[in-house]
Amino acid sequence: xxENGSIQIxxxxxxxxxxxxxxxxxxxxxxxxxxxxxxxxxxxxxxIFALMALCSFFPPMIDPMYHPMTGVDPLISHSTSPSWRHxxxxxxxxxxxxxxxxxxxxxxxxxxISAAFMSILLGTAIGMIAGYxxxxxxTLLMRLADMIxxxxxxxxxxxxxxxxxQLNIWTIVLLxxxxxxxxxxRVIRAQTLSLKERPFIEAAKVAGASHxxxxxRHIMPNVLPLSLLxxxxxxxxxxxxxxALAFLGFGDPSTVSWGMMLQWVWKTGHMFQxxxxxxxxxxxxxxxxxxxxxxxxxxxxxLDPRLRKEVAQE
Amino acid sequence: MKEPxxxxxxxxxxxxxxxxxxxxxxxxxxxxxxLNDVSFNIFKGEIFGLVGESGSGxxxxxxLIVKLEEPDDGKLLLDGNDIxxxxxxxxxxxxxKVQMIFQDPYQSLNPYLSVYDSVSEPLVVHNVGNSExxxxxxxxxxxxxxxxxxxxxxxxxxxxxxxxQRQRIAIARAMVLKPEFVVxxxxxxxxxxxxxxxxxxxxxxxxxxxxxxxxxITHSLAAARYLCDRIxxxxxxxxxxxxxxxxxxxNPSHPYTRALIQAHPKFRY
Amino acid sequence: xxxxxxKNLSVGYHTRKGFLKSVQGVSFTxDQGKSLGLVGESGCGxxxxGMALMGLLPDNAAVTGGEILFEDxxxxxxxxxxxxxxxxxxxxxxxxxxxxxxxxxHRVGEQIAxxxxxxxxxISEEAAMKQVExxxxxxxxxxxxxxxxxxxxxxxxKQRAIIAMALACHPSLIIAxxxxxxxxxxxxxxxxxxxxxxxxxxxxxxxxxxHDIAVVADVCDNIGIMFAGQLVEYGRIEDVFDKPMHxxxxxxxxxxxxxxxxxxxxxxxxxxxxxxxNPTPGCRFCERCSVAEAACSLMAxxxxxxxxxxxxxxxxxx
Lengths: 314, 269, 318
Prior knowledge:
By secondary structure, chain A is mainly α. Chain A has helices at residues 2-5, 21-33, 37-55, 58-62, 97-132, 135-150, 153-164, 169-196, 199-207, 211-247, 258-267, 275-307; one strand at residues 7-8. In chain A, helix 2 packs across helix 12, helix 5 packs antiparallel against helix 6 and helix 11 (258-267) packs antiparallel against helix 12. By secondary structure, chain B is α/β, with parallel strands linked by helices. Helices cover 36% and strands 28% of the residues of chain B. Chain B has nine helices and eleven strands. In chain B, a hairpin with a 2-residue loop joins strand 4 and strand 5 (81-82). The longest helix of chain B has 18 residues, at 193-210. Chain C is an alpha/beta fold. In chain C, the strands form two sheets. In chain C, strands 6-7-8-3-9-10-12-11 form an eight-stranded mixed sheet, with helices on both faces. The longest helix of chain C has 18 residues, at 185-202. Strand 1 of chain A pairs parallel with strand 7 (147-148) of chain B.
């Protein structure tokens, strides 16, 4: 019977499946993403900012006076309005504002993405373990999450830095991550709870997979799209928190971030006299967070129908 | 090749009750008796059918046998060993020998794993072979369910395949370790009727080639007749009839069996 | 005069991969009080035909040709408002997995009464409930269950409630799309009897859509076998079952398992589903066909009249 019942796959197949299905999946997702106007705007803005961040390395190489922290124009030692020499003018000690803006973009990306990444890492792992485990572990983890969630991040970081002095930028990133994982973990836990009952998880159990393997090999790929989605939203909050900290004077004084720039404007009393100094960082913060948010919204559309995708007929 | 004298699986006085908790809207905790004092034996190498309607307890029986759930009462013996007592190493060993084919092919494959990953999963879990030999074993398994050339399927994903193909993959996955006992839980109820017979033929073929014992759970007496040597009819958690397929259909003794036969669509032509 | 005449209906869906020609050139007629079974595997287009008849095609669907003449009016040319008049009052549908169509937070009796009230504004609530009682009687649900919620009903009872809802406005045609999937054999038998019953009592026409030829065998007068969007065999049920002509019909009948006869071994099975975006110019079944010849893949087959009540779309059945 086998000879008769065996299946031939006809050679009319479009293409042999690649060994890199991730690429194929990504392209499929991209074709959906492209159709979303918000997504396109967001992505364009993001690319502009990314280019800004990359370009931040060039000005100091052209002329040392363009260095955001230490570059002082020998001819200027106070705040001036935009000119050909300094496209956005200079700050109160003669440093080029445009270079500071570029450097700030770099910092924003670094902070935003690292903090988001770490909080997602934590949140996903904890969420999966809580969702998969039985009552005690789940309850403990979720109560911990609740406790952290109710604490106001900004306030706690302010208190900590007033106790320990000025904080290094990476410490700030770590703190943001530590306070932001609960939100993600709740969502991932909910997703895990529903996945746990699905037949393919039971099939893995019947095959003999250990709990660890089930969580990280079977459940994780299914929650990862959701994690990535949440990461985009976490980036926005990370950037804003860092900017707020810097503005209030609790940032890392050796880094030039947009929040820091705003602090300098304020502290040196140029708030209303130097719009060329005040406006750019503020607008950048808003636009960057908006663009990440748009990216996230568009990604939602890509992920949702794909997660429920059922195709092909017999 | 059936060994009518060798019993591979024994169910002795198995009972299972599901209890729902008391809640604000649903009132008092309710109890549903899924299985009530069920006992039967399955011989090595046979295809044993368990026929019943939804809610009869047939799926619960299958789940208890593969240890997705534990019985409240009674013993389950595989080759004479009480499986309810298995832990760790014995449990892992058990999992090599006993596998399951699930009902819903649209849900029983991990959407993020390729066909190769899904079918090789049992091999990886039990540390069988290396990457080369595993590929060969997966090839063999895919061939045996009629998916050839197998290499064409290695890197496909479930959503790119039809229900019938997915179910074949699920069968390949269950068979890749060459288990001794496989529970097939309504493997065709989510597929078109015209595809069902092909799946049955695959199971019959696998049984002949590998001498594996099947517990075939179904709501269709006709399917059980086609595939099985012996059948047990289960109704509301109790076994009402057991015997050879032909015998039960020709001489049903229990009124429920008679009702099942009566209700089956008849071809008048 | 036939109640329903479908002429050369073609429907497709706009997908990202192209235009999926789901139904191509399907024609059939249905008289009042008669029933037609549409049988085929998933994806053959049978559900699409049902949706087209109800005017419920999704946004990405497009009717590319043909007409649907219901009581001498072309449904395809009607405006949305006109279709709404027809829908449920003249043509009703029992959807796939319809048991999930009951609103879980409303009582079943009320939901059916709501369907009546929505289409008949003159009637009072009491009169509507009285009608519901009559319907429950017809489909065989005890009257004391009228005030229950859907979760108190078993699968079979829910399905009967859905049938009652479909009958609520006394339609002349009911389209039943896989009404017995997910139901056990005994319940399936009861539902099929109920359908036969009301069909006789109320002289309603039924179009029965299913992938299971056995289910259709008991209930229908005529049968249409569909494959890859086309009707491949059509005729009275006795004719088609007695002398199946098209190779696909033969394979469908062979794969049906009975309690008495031995099953016929089916032919080898091709995995690849038929391509509905770029269908072959010839016979769409020829890749799976055991009696296909070279000409079959090049030329589109034509209808062969086997008798006045039986025809098949295949060169091999002359």
